[in-house]
Amino acid sequence: RKEVEQDPGPFNVPEGATVAFNCTYSNSASQSFFWYRQDCRKEPKLLMSVYSSGNEDGRFTAQLNRASQYISLLIRDSKLSDSATYLCVVILTTDSWGKLQFGAGTQVVVTP
Amino acid sequence: DGGITQSPKYLFRKEGQNVTLSCEQNLNHDAMYWYRQDPGQGLRLIYYSQIVNDFQKGDIAEGYSVSREKKESFPLTVTSAQKNPTAFYLCASTPGPGGTPDTYEQYFGPGTRLTVT
């Protein structure tokens, strides 16, 4: 079983609609969580950190469910520019450096 | 502007040749990482370095070598022993050890797309 799993998609979303997807992690000792965005043939870029209480950044909302060991990302009022692959990153803090685990990504395609 | 540079963007090599990918950062970050990404897969850690003159193997180090002679530079050599070297290679850095989430944020370079035929 992979340590971090994501539905690869693609999630085809009409412009203006809402899309949400999850990322599950296997190690209950995981401490920090992030969502990265990766455009085709480009490097990943940090979208947002995921805090225990959940957090929102404009049209993006991230949630953490420790009991069920998953994080989620919700995108409201989707824009064409939101089309990308969204990578989940989970950090296991065994020492001060931490060990990062990347999911394979969820592809989102926003259509006109 | 601070950031990470990788060169070249595209690299073509014949099978059996070693090739070195460049990674330079001017962010004054302690830690640097090399990842490999294949289509439809997540990033896999090749090597990482937390301090100058020290580096550790990641999950898929076989067929690769690195050096960390300067804080700013972390070159990766793909040797002829690497069975499937064609991939997208990403270099990243983080500020350093710490207990807050922001110290774990990975800053990525633009990547090098290596094709070996």
Brief synopsis:
Chain A has 112 residues and is an all-beta fold. Chain A is built from no helices and 11 strands. In chain B, strands 2, 4, 5, 6, 9, 10 and 11 form a 7-stranded mixed β-sheet that branches. Chain B has a 4-stranded antiparallel β-sheet with strand order 1-3-8-7, with no helix packed on it.
Characteristic key phrases:
heterodimer, A: 112 residues, mainly beta, 6-stranded mixed beta sheet, 5-stranded antiparallel beta sheet, 11 strands, 0% helix, B: 117 residues, 7-stranded mixed beta sheet, 4-stranded antiparallel beta sheet, 48% strand, globular
Describe the protein.
The complex is a heterodimer of chains A (112) and B (117). Helices cover 0% and strands 57% of the residues of chain A. With 112 residues, chain A is an all-beta fold. In chain A, strands 2, 4, 5, 9, 10 and 11 form a six-stranded mixed beta sheet that branches. A five-stranded antiparallel beta sheet of chain A has the order 1-3-8-7-6, with no helix packed on it. In chain A, β4 and β5 (44-50) form a beta hairpin. The N and C termini of chain A lie far apart (37 Å). In chain A, 34% of the residues are buried. The model of chain A has no long low-confidence stretch (mean pLDDT 91). With 117 residues, chain B is mostly beta strands. Helix content of chain B is 0%, strand content 48%. Chain B contains no helices and eleven strands. In chain B, the strands form two sheets. In chain B, strands 2, 4, 5, 6, 9, 10 and 11 form a seven-stranded mixed beta sheet that branches. In chain B, strands 1-3-8-7 form a four-stranded antiparallel beta sheet, with no helix packed on it. Chain B starts with a strand and ends with a strand. The model of chain B has no long low-confidence stretch (mean pLDDT 91). The interface between A and B is medium-sized, with 24 and 24 residues.
